[in-house]
Amino acid sequence: MKHVTILGSTGSIGVSCLDVISRLPEHFAVGYLTTHQNVEALYEQARQFRPKAVAVVESSDAGERSEWRGRFKSLGIEFLTGAAGVEELAGRDDVDVVVNAIVGAAGLRPTLAALTAGKTVALANKETLVTAGELVASTARQRGGKIIPIDSEHSALWQCLEGESLASIETIILTASGGPFRTRTITEMEKVTVTEALQHPNWSMGRKITIDSATLMNKGLEVIEACWLFEAPLRKIRVLIHPQSIIHSMVEFVDGSIKAQMGTPDMRIPIQYALSYPQRLANKLPRLDFSRWSTLTFQEPDFDKFACLRLAYQAIENGGTAPTVLNAANEVAVHAFLDERLGFLDIPRMVDSALQRHQNHRAADLEAVISADQWAREFVRDELRRAPY
What we know:
The chain is α/β, with parallel strands linked by helices and 389 residues long. It contains 16 helices and eleven strands.
């Protein structure tokens, strides 16, 4: 029996994780749950899974916090608040796996707290490695923590590389669906609406990551993440558009062999593998029906049309705090787009401006990472205030 903490349990990954746990109660139990502000959903989850404690980052006022504390207490569940509460639960020693499903750079500190405690972190929060890959990797090494990826692409690579030496890798191939605008021209993409951008053809995800998938920034972040997860140089990582999302990623080896991990586009599969690793557990999730997929297609990404992908390659090549700036500027720009204060193609333009203005530094400590993150956010906010888009 593994005891699991889920950070960000009310988001799409967190909900899928709880679904996996509910299907395999003889193997997994919930230790702790957290949410940013969806306390109502958290309470319903707590009623079903009975964690020892929960944490809410934001709540309206002291009166509301007191009311919710009383409601959770009636279930025998401790109630914590604030980012510090999330970090505390992430580092508690009576769980086996900490799932980090927090959206954005807010996931960094809890990841560090869990790794510092020597925990296995099932990581869905790619921003952790994007913003502070050097710091996170060194913390895991020094404290005995372990990172297992949840993203379908990195889980696929993890499985393909099981039992293989890093020296045998020729190319890591990250597949991408291409999002909803794969066949549109740049001119057509200038007029993309929020509603259109939120219509991903294959995956059901949260709003922010869905926009990142539409711009291909999500794939760019995954390239950076792969560099740290698999200790691979950038020249060995390639992105390939695969609209069907059946092959989740591939590895080409020095002898010309290629391993590909395939499956239905269902996040519960990589989530379950991250929780059960190194075992594989039987389940009743939908299986891949090859008779439905007579054709699988592939194409190179268009770096001109999807400038976010190009900028991500540029950021990791520059190193230091450049990936931190890339991520932070993108987060603010994406939220501005979702609020209809910024155009779709203005997202990469804003990120590019931040990268050009940023003075790069080494990202070996948390202070440097946080400083670069805050600078990039304020830069984009200033740009938004100065010139309405």
